[in-house]
Specification:
The complex is a heterodimer of chains A (504) and B (657). In chain A, 74% of the residues lie in helices and 3% in strands. Chain A is mainly alpha-helical. In chain A, strands 1-2 form a two-stranded antiparallel ribbon. The longest helix of chain A has 33 residues. Chain B is mainly α and 657 residues long. The chains are: A mainly alpha (504), B mainly alpha (657).
């Protein structure tokens, strides 16, 4: 097929160049800016499809590899490549880019070209994060992403945006500094910045522990995990709709991706020693954060807490492998948890994107996200309510939606590790239903109690198309998850071998 | 061929639901009712064919996969069919009752003051009940736990949509929220049970699971250190918790009375053929597993019998016609579950079937009364209706006689087989259960005929006198007639094969020493006719008849009696009126408790401890630094950001040099 064509580079640089173009050419011409943006993201998405169709599911080694020297002095390379772990995330990213541009179409009225440009650039950078195989390249993409996001929230955000952006920035930035230090240490030991070399190098226990903790600092903030999660609700509340979608659908996944690309394969012994820490924090996320979500009166905050709670399944599924070996003596069941974690990331990308989109639809009309400002929306927006209830049910993890697949797999797998893990994780069945459907009840059902709701208009064609697309993905993945699992099977199996092979 | 037929049975209601739901406005009311009724009819006719093949001609059980949902970790998660006597019977019950409800709905839902005329609520309702049928079919046709759980939850979803159908009413949306949550509590147990199946059997497939049962019979697990439990018992009890949610057993019964907030046709569907039967069906489906644990079966027996007795009592004081029937459902479900607990699976399933028909009949007849009474539901405002609506009257009479187990009617045979089996059972708790169920028989007869007399006999109320009451149109009465026939006669041919175990064949497996129904068949049973003739001298029928007599005495002959009785024991009345305080307890402990806990976590931990305590303090320290550098004062945050990145790169260069 497209051998030799630098498809990953295209996916990174096409939107970035397109974004710069939009910034300059689209000035004073919002229509051009929009169409140029749509063209760019559409093309990027179409170009990303060969990654799926041309993917070799039988190998765990990197595919679509590009490798050229970048800073030869430090052996830093422009090294890209994907496996079954990163490929679905890249497709999720290119898909979300389209979603984001269309969602902002006639919502953003001021400085359209800057808004669209920022999201295009963000899109390219995110693909870079998932495709980078050189740690410095990875780090550059990882940090560079903060800038456009920072600008988007700071410029188009709500009233407390300065507080929120600073909190967001400092949190994530401080976390990643430790990661950089870990990279530099490993470079000094191995003479390479290549992630694959890091995965193969020998590391002593003490070094592993420190590296693991450094990674944890970076990834735990990003996911986010308790107790470093409080930046997320604030960032969501202040961010414009598209910002929230990117934040929830993609940026959180970078943390989860970090665990499977760095922590587990590079520091397997430390992961095994400290798995209780990650599992404990995951269970706190699922149970405690879920209960906190119940108390929220702002829809975006509620969904933000719900996101944190759902990401608990991701980290739980990734780290139960050691306890499974401990309690059953074999690895049987661990792959289910790891794949469940990966599926949960993809699924959460769709569902959280859909939830924030739905909140955006309401916010555009009523300019408030307070649950108490709404009641009986269904009477005026029946189509919208249908989608919203579907997304809510997906958020609740109803079988037949994508939200079920990952949770189910992780619950089964963690039950194998320890009955109490599974039991606590399964509590989400009750807690998740409580906070999600309670919100649905208060916002969508009941009589109309104020005039603003009386004036609501149902979805326009653009919004309808967005929601219908997401609904198709959410149900499709829920009814037939097999293709997604097949893609990651080999890579996950390989990852589990890496994660359980001692480096000492 | 069979595979295609089964697929069609499953998906045709789904297709109908999708068309009616998504294209409701385009195809209009006529189109929606036509397409959904067509879908369910196809499903019903084909189910009848399958029933003929598997039950009447006893084909070998059919087990096949429809498609592979996913393969992970070497375990196949499939969507497929397991068709045998048990599922074929359930399929016919579900599709037949559902078809009756579909036809009935054409008349029942034609006008609704809750909705504007241009709102496609009518199409939506049809879409929901077809979707309900699909969900229930996927549950009963499943050959694995994954699909069972899918159907399990899908039924929960559609009941949520249907109970909250009048979504402007606060009571309706409260009821559906509650129904979903309470069911989720059951599902929590259920999914843990499935997880235990996964952990110890490494499969989701029923047959593979059954094959490994004996090998896992002695596995013990330690959940709390030092306490060992039998894994199988724990698994079965957890699965049963799921059944308690769906089949509304105490204390997870609280959602069912409130599910009356939905339109009447849906009550018929929820209470008769779908949803509440799911739990009973699941136990029967997994009978080879449940046979492994005496303890689990005793728990089931006691929970079922307590529900049957206590919930029946609550029926005594209800004045809402639908609520009376709702409490009778709770109590009858208790009978079925108790039968399961006594290893009389066939008897329990028998009662599921007869109850499916006569309960649908009762609800639809009640709906007919409600139409005639212009949506009044209080039975004290009715009276003397028999003159005006003869078909409904006859239907309600047949339904009530079946419900109380009057000899010869379908309910008599199924209830008698449960009682006889319980009498023969020697399981721990069976004596206790027997006494409770016997009392339940009396209570059921009393409140059923209390309602019957108050509605159809006695003095006409002011409302009845001043309004024109007329019989319902044929779309309403036709389903009544079609349901009344099996409710009356279906017990006759079924009782013998049900007791002997022939009916379900190998679909239900009972250890020889546990097969109480068979011992009744061998030692007691002398043909259906003899059973009916003997019945008039047996305790259950005497109790039932005295219940009817007492109702007649108190509500027709001496109407002042109940008032006096209520004055005599106000405390007893209060206990019943508050439904033993389950709702209050839930309100105080779970609703308020979780609300308070969540606010405490939110305010004290997230905001105060983490945000104000840890974050902001660090934050202000850094900001002070920044202020000193006058960077934040430029107003451009990204200057700050760039500065940090360049600073870091500088550090990096310095570190590596």
């Amino acid at each position: 097929m497209l051998t030799g064509f630098p498809i990953l580079s295209t996916l990174i640089w096409l939107p970035i160049v397109g974004g710069l173009l939009v910034l300059f050419a689209g000035r004073n011409n919002p229509t051009l800016a929009k169409w140029l943006s749509l063209f760019t993201v559409g093309l990027t998405f179409i170009l990303s499809i060969p990654l799926w169709t041309g993917f070799d599911t039988t190998t765990a080694s990197m595919q679509f590899v590009e490798n050229v020297p970048w800073i030869p002095m430090f052996n830093v390379n422009y090294h890209l490549g994907i496996d079954g772990l990163s490929m679905p995330l890249i497709l999720l990213t290119t898909f979300t880019q389209v979603l984001v541009i269309v969602s902002a179409w006639d919502v953003i009225k001021e400085r359209v070209e800057q808004y669209m440009g920022a999201f295009l650039i963000m899109g390219g950078i995110m693909v870079g994060v998932f495709a980078a195989l050189d740690s410095i390249l990875f780090y550059v993409f990882w940090e560079a992403l903060l800038i456009p996001m920072f600008i988007v929230i700071g410029k188009w955000g709500g009233p407390k945006r300065v507080y929120a952006t600073l909190k967001f920035f400092l949190y994530t930035f401080l976390g990643s500094v430790f990661m950089l230090v870990a990279f530099i240490y490993m470079y000094s030991e191995s003479g390479s910045f290549s992630i694959l070399d890091f995965q193969g190098m020998h590391l002593g226990m003490t070094a592993q522990i420190f590296i693991f903790l450094a990674f944890l600092a970076a990834f735990a903030v990003k996911i986010p995990m308790f107790p470093v999660h409080t930046w997320l609700p604030d960032a969501h509340v202040e961010a414009p709709t598209a910002g929230s979608i990117v934040l929830a659908a993609i940026m959180l996944k970078m943390g989860g991706y970090g665990f499977v690309r760095f922590s587990l394969p590079i520091t397997p012994d430390a992961s095994m020693t400290l798995d209780w820490l990650v599992i404990g924090l995951s269970l706190i996320a699922i149970v405690y954060i879920g209960i906190v979500a119940l108390a929220q009166s702002d829809m975006k905050k509620l969904v933000a807490y719900s996101s944190i709670s759902h990401m608990g399944f991701v980290t739980l599924g990734m780290f139960v492998v050691y306890d499974i070996i401990d309690s059953t003596g074999s690895m049987q069941g661990a792959q289910l948890g790891m794949e469940g974690a990966m599926v949960q990331m993809i699924s959460h990308g769709f569902i959280s994107g859909a939830m924030f989109l739905a909140i955006g639809v309401l916010y555009d009309r009523m300019h408030t996200r307070e649950i108490s400002a709404y009641s009986g929306v269904v009477n005026k927006m029946p189509w919208f309510t249908m989608f919203a209830v579907l997304f809510a049910m997906a958020n609740v993890g109803l079988p037949g939606t994508s939200g079920f697949v990952g949770e189910f797999m992780v619950i089964l797998s963690s039950f194998k590790a320890n009955i109490w893990y599974g039991t606590l994780a399964a509590l989400t069945l009750i807690i998740g239903a409580a906070y999600t459907l309670w919100m649905v009840k208060r916002v969508f059902f009941g009589p109309i109690t104020n005039d603003n709701v009386e004036k609501l208009q149902d979805l326009n064609k653009r919004e309808f198309a967005l929601m219908a697309t997401l609904a198709v993905f959410i149900i499709g993945l829920g009814v037939f998850p097999s293709p997604l699992i097949e893609v990651m099977n080999t890579s996950v199996a390989n990852l589990l071998v890496q994660a359980t092979t001692s480096k000492l | 061929m069979l595979h295609t037929i089964l697929t069609l049975i499953l998906v045709s209601p789904l297709i109908g639901a999708a068309i009616a739901g998504l294209l409701g406005r385009q195809i209009g009311r006529k189109g929606a009712q036509a397409v959904t009724i067509l879908g369910v009819t196809v499903s019903m006719v084909l189910s009848a064919y399958v029933f003929n093949q598997f039950v009447l001609n006893t084909s070998e059980a059919y087990n096949a996969s429809l498609y592979t949902w996913m393969v992970s970790d070497g375990i196949r998660f499939e969507i497929g069919f397991m068709i045998d006597e048990l599922s074929a019977t359930m399929m016919l019950l579900v599709t037949f009752v559902s078809l009756m409800v579909h036809i009935y709905t054409v008349g029942y839902m034609s006008h609704d003051e809750d909705y504007a005329d241009d709102d496609p609520y009518f199409q939506r309702f049809f879409s929901y009940i077809s979707l309900f049928t699909f969900s229930m079919l996927s549950l009963v046709m499943a050959n694995n736990f994954l699909q069972l759980f899918f159907g399990w939850e899908a039924v929960g979803l559609v009941s949520y949509l249907l109970i909250g159908f009048y979504m402007k009413r606060e009571s309706a949306i409260q009821a559906n929220f509650k129904a979903f949550l309470v069911n989720r509590v059951g599902d929590f147990g259920f999914i843990l049970g499935i997880a235990l199946v996964f952990v110890y059997f490494n499969t989701m497939d029923y047959n593979e699971f059954f094959a490994q049962l004996s090998a896992n019979g002695d596995v013990m697990i330690e959940i709390i250190p030092g306490v060992e439990w039998s894994m199988i018992t724990l698994m079965l009890i957890l699965l049963f918790v799921g059944a308690m949610g769906k089949s509304a057993q105490m204390p997870l019964h609280v959602w069912l009375p409130e599910s009356m907030e939905g339109p009447t046709p849906i009550s018929a569907l929820i209470h008769a053929a779908t949803m509440v039967t799911a739990g009973v069906f699941m136990i029967a489906r997994l009978s080879p597993a449940f046979e492994m644990s005496e303890t689990a079966l005793s728990v089931i027996l006691i929970v079922g019998a307590s529900t049957a007795f206590l919930m029946g009592l609550l029926g005594l004081i209800q004045d809402d016609i639908k609520r009376v029937i709702a409490y009778s459902t709770l109590s009858q479900l208790g009978f079925m579950i108790a039968a399961m607990g006594a290893s009389a699976y066939a008897a329990g399933m028998f009662h599921v079937l007869t109850h499916g028909f006569f309960k649908a009949l009762l609800f639809l007849a009640a709906g007919s009364v409600i139409i005639a009474m212009h949506h009044k539901q209080n039975i004290r405002e009715m009276g003397g209706l028999y003159k005006y609506m003869p078909i409904t009257y006859a239907a309600m009479l047949i339904g009530s006689l079946a419900l109380i187990g009057f000899p010869g009617f379908s309910g008599f045979f199924s209830k008698d087989s449960i009682l006889l089996s319980l009498d023969a059972s020697e399981r721990v708790g069976s004596n206790f259960a027997y006494v409770l169920l016997m009392t339940g028989v009396f209570v059921t007869a009393f409140y059923s005929f209390r309602m019957f007399f108050l509605v159809f006999h006695g003095k006409e109320s002011e409302y009845v006198k001043t309004h024109k009451i007329k019989e319902s149109p044929w779309v309403v009465t036709l389903p009544l007639i079609l349901l009344a026939i099996p409710s009356a006669i279906m017990g006759w041919p079924m009782i013998a094969p049900m007791l002997s175990g022939e009916y379900f064949g190998s679909a239900i497996q009972i250890l020889p020493q546990n097969d109480v129904a068979l011992s009744v068949y061998n030692n007691y049973f002398q043909g259906a006719l003899q059973l009916v003739l003997d019945a008039f001298t047996t305790l259950p029928v005497i109790l039932a008849l005295s219940g009817v007599f007492l109702a007649w005495l108190m509500y027709i002959k001496v109407p002042s009696l109940p008032v006096k009785l209520k004055k005599m024991c106000p405390r007893g009345f209060y206990v019943l009126d508050s439904a033993y305080g389950f709702d209050r307890l839930n309100e105080i402990v779970f609703v308020d408790g979780s609300r308070k806990l969540s606010h405490f976590f939110n305010k004290a931990v997230d905001i105060k401890l983490i945000d104000t305590g840890m974050v902001t303090r660090t934050f202000t320290a850094i900001e002070d630094m920044g202020q000193a550098l006058r960077l934040t004062q430029t107003g451009y945050m990204y200057h700050y950001a760039f500065a940090m990145i360049f600073g870091l790169l500088a550090m990096l260069v310095w570190a590596l040099w």
